[in-house]
Structure to design on (894 residues):
């Protein structure tokens, strides 16, 4: 058995039960090893969100196999699935998905509350996550009182608060200015290095992708190319730009 | 796009909301028509039923129904319009002229309301005959003389007129909604979120204090002051209830939130967060339902008590089936002959007692003015013999010489009579030393009765020989169904001041039953309409929450936890108004019990139990429907995954 935390084989996803069908994923293969920080890039509509949703068990594949930590989550009973989502998985949604009914702090602490953490531990973890993403000052505001970037950071803090083994992030820097983006990415980086959190991050931004250890390019529902970091971010960024150009050429 | 097409399109999309709105109108129109059809029925407006006050009772009831229908229509359309605001804004943003959009909403509200009203009247026409028959039975009118005609056109006309007016007002409100929105409400900010009312602990405490004051004023009122205090107490209670809902609910939500240890635990942030999110709306619902519930609980409780009270009076003041004065000594023989001739009601018991009618001077307390009135005296041994003969329960009186005991009727106050000095010719001054319940022979002809020791009684007889008369009681089997016998006995005993169950109690029981019928009917109707408002509001909100719950399950909330969150919300939405209206009604009914010197314990317990049972049933129905609305897709998904 390989040590891959996520192992996808022949993954396909067809949208639209009857009438117009659309194949968002076409036989996609992907391995993510424990401790990796993997970037996913590709043009809009390539199937990136679809892939993340399937890994997170939010969506089911139409065909193919997906194993997380060696188990097929879709065959697990509902309670175990819920437990996996609560304790092992963090998800930063592209459209935030914050609860309007709760403040920023309460949103961050929500997964901890659902996991039944005792008060002190819950508070400590929620505060730590909020501090990591510098949202402590806005902790008592409601989502509608926050800017898009602030909401994105709250969403990220909520995802990392339980200390997940696998963090899935869908364009977490999409709404951030370059300074805030750098802050968020370096906190992801430190999570990855210090805590060994495995991260899978979708991004359109080559600069953001350069924080990763490896980047896969998805085109029309399958993996088109892959670039590994040699350790130097500057050099990695340059090779990502090249790969992007090549892919755009391929599209044309 | 024309206004009409706009209306049709949005109506079809919002069909759930509008079905609920139309159903609320239909229910109110239905009830109104029923009451109007009784009130305006030609048979009701002549003869016995007019004497019993039936048209008046139903006229008053229909006014109450109209007032609450107005309140409900207003709330209902305001609520639905609020949900439509965004849509209206969106149309305007895409360039639909504002008057067209506004007219669309106006037309929609009016059309759905009218449809509901017509449906209600149609159901009313179908059911009014049944309803009238039920009412007629209660007042003892034979079905043959029953309701005339199938459709009461006057009632249809009145119902349509009343609801057209109410709907007109509500629709104009809907029209205004569109003129009041700002585009900013559409985006970002207060999208779905209600403007959160500011919580003020000071005002919450003030409302609680006000309510306590209202309760105190109510509970300390007496027969003399209760009339003037009624409106004051009603006003105070209304304001205080609104204040409690308006200030205490947000304060409570805030306090629960502030305690993060309590708040951040499994379902609590979800349920409390949702309740607080819609607190503005919830406050109005809490308030309206608490008040409607109070009115109907008091109506039912009072109706029940009036009936119990009559039955209790009969028990204590009507120990015999027939009570009559002895004039020439042949009365008993004549009455017995009538009973034997009838044959269906054999004599069970017979007794007599001497009543001495005298002028008494009564000094209630030291320094208080003396009053003089006619009282009837009975000796203690004859009292005991009569009560024993009738087989009724009684407190064994033991007046010593120089003492008198009061025979209590419903409104006599022992507290005021105790220690009073009574001067009667022939006796050397008596002191009221106690009281007993239960008349010796009874009947409505009886005056205030004092029991004296045998020796004092004989002395009084010697001094007032002209006041003496004998009253006889005759008890027959199954006297509650002795209508014909009562008539026969009445014919046999002209001028003997005959009292019988049929002649004296039956009419009372009939109007009691009518009162109770109206009370229970209003109570059930209000319960149904408040229940349906809470139900639809809650289920609609739950379906608005479906996306939120789906998301929660993606971050690992178990279905059981989410179900708890949904149920907890429904629980609070039912519990808060129930607690308020139970508390109000208990105070109101206790006050009435105190003022009217009657034991309200049973009616209070019965009404509260009935309401709690009804609300529990409603809670179960609503929470089930809400769980389905909020979590339906999650269940489907779990199945697919399993
Ligand atoms: N629920 C759905 N029903 C039908 N088609 C869908 C659904 N969700 C996504 N799609 C289609 O699947 C394709 C892949 O969508 P996906 O959201 O994965 O793209 P993406 O790579 O995340 O794009 P972006 O970078 O714009 O977020 C798109 O063409 C989209 O139209
Ligand atoms: Mg996407």
């Amino acid at each position: 058995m390989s040590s891959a935390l996520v192992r996808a084989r022949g993954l396909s996803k067809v949208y639209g039960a009857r009438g117009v069908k659309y194949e968002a994923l076409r036989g996609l293969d992907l391995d993510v090893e424990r401790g990796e920080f993997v970037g996913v890039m590709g043009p809009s509509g390539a199937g990136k969100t679809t892939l993340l949703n399937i890994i997170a068990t939010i969506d089911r594949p139409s065909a193919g196999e997906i194993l997380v930590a060696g188990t097929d989550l879709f065959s697990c009973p509902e309670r175990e699935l819920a437990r996996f989502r609560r304790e092992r998985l963090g998800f930063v949604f592209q459209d935030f998905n914050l609860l309007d009914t709760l403040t920023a702090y309460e949103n961050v602490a929500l997964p901890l509350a659902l996991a039944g953490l005792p008060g002190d531990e819950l508070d400590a973890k929620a505060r730590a996550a909020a501090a990591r993403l510098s949202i402590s000052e806005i902790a008592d505001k409601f989502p509608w009182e926050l800017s898009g970037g602030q909401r994105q950071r709250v969403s990220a803090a909520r995802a990392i608060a339980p200390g997940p083994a696998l963090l899935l992030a869908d364009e977490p820097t999409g709404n951030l200015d370059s300074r805030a983006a750098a802050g968020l990415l370096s906190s992801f980086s430190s999570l990855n290095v210090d805590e060994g959190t495995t991260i899978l991050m979708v991004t359109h931004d080559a600069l953001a992708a350069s924080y990763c250890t490896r980047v896969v390019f998805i085109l029309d529902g399958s993996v088109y190319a892959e670039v590994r970091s040699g350790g130097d971010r500057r050099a990695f960024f340059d090779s990502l730009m090249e790969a992007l150009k090549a892919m755009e050429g391929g599209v044309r | 796009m024309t206004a009409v097409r706009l209306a049709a399109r949005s109506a079809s999309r919002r069909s759930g909301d509008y079905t609920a709105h139309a159903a609320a109108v239909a229910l109110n129109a239905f009830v109104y028509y029923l009451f109007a059809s009784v009130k305006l029925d030609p048979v009701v407006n002549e003869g016995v039923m007019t004497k019993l006050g039936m048209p008046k009772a139903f006229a008053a009831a229909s006014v109450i129904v109209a007032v609450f229908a107005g309140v409900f229509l207003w709330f209902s359309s305001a609520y639905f319009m609020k949900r439509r605001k965004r849509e209206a804004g969106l149309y305007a943003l895409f360039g639909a002229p504002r008057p067209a959009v506004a007219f669309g909403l106006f037309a929609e509200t009016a059309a759905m309301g009218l449809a509901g009203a017509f449906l209600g009247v149609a159901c009313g026409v179908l059911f009014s005959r049944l309803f009238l028959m039920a009412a007629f039975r209660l007042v003892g009118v034979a079905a043959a003389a029953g309701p005339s005609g199938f459709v009461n056109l006057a009632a249809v006309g009145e119902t349509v007129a009343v609801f057209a007016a109410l709907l007109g007002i509500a629709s104009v409100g809907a029209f205004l909604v569109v003129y009041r929105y700002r585009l900013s409400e559409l985006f970002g900010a207060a999208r779905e979120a209600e403007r959160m009312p500011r919580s003020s602990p000071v005002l919450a405490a003030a409302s609680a204090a006000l309510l306590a004051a209202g309760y105190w004023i109510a509970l300390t009122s007496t027969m003399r002051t209760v009339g003037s205090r009624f409106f004051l107490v009603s006003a105070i209670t209304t304001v205080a209830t609104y204040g409690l809902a308006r200030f205490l609910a947000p304060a409570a939500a805030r306090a629960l939130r502030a305690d993060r240890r309590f708040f951040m635990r499994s379902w609590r942030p979800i349920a409390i967060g949702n309740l607080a999110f819609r607190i503005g709306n919830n406050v109005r619902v809490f308030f309206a339902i608490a008040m409607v519930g109070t009115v109907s609980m008091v109506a039912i409780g009072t109706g029940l008590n009036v009936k119990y009270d009559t039955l209790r009076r009969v028990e204590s003041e009507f120990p015999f089936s027939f009570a009559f004065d002895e004039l020439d000594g042949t009365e008993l023989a004549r009455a017995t002959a009538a009973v034997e001739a009838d044959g269906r009601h054999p004599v069970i018991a017979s007794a007599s007692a001497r009543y001495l009618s005298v002028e008494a001077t009564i000094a209630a307390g030291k320094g208080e003015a003396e009053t003089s009135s006619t009282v009837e005296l009975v000796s203690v041994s004859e009292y005991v013999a009569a009560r024993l003969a009738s087989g009724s329960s009684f407190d064994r009186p033991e007046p010593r010489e120089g003492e008198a005991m009061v025979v209590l009727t419903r409104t006599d106050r022992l507290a005021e009579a105790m220690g009073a000095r009574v001067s009667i010719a022939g006796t050397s001054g008596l002191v009221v030393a106690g009281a007993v319940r239960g008349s010796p022979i009874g009947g409505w002809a009886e005056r205030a009765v004092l029991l004296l020791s045998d020796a004092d009684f004989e002395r009084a007889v010697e001094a007032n020989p002209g006041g003496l008369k004998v009253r006889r009681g005759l008890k027959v089997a199954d006297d509650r169904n002795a209508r014909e016998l009562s008539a026969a006995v009445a014919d046999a005993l002209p001028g003997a001041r005959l009292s019988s169950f049929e002649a004296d109690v039956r009419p009372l029981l009939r109007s009691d039953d009518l009162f109770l019928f109206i009370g229970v009917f209003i109570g059930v109707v209000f319960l149904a309409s408040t229940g349906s408002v809470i139900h639809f509001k809650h289920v609609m909100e739950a379906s608005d929450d479906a996306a939120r719950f789906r998301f929660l399950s993606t971050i690992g909330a178990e279905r059981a936890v989410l179900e708890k969150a949904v149920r907890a919300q429904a629980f609070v939405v039912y519990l808060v108004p129930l607690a308020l209206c139970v508390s109000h009604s208990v105070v109101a009914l206790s006050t009435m019990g105190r003022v009217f010197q009657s034991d309200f314990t049973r009616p209070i317990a019965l009404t509260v139990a009935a309401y709690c049972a009804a609300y529990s049933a409603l809670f179960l129905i609503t929470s089930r429907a809400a769980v389905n609305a909020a979590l339906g897709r999650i269940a489907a998904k779990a199945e697919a995954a399993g």
Q: What stands out?
A: The first strand of chain B starts at residue 322 and ends at 325. Residues A 15-16, 22, 24, 42, 44-50, 94 surround adenosine-5'-triphosphate (ligand 1) (CB under 6 Å).
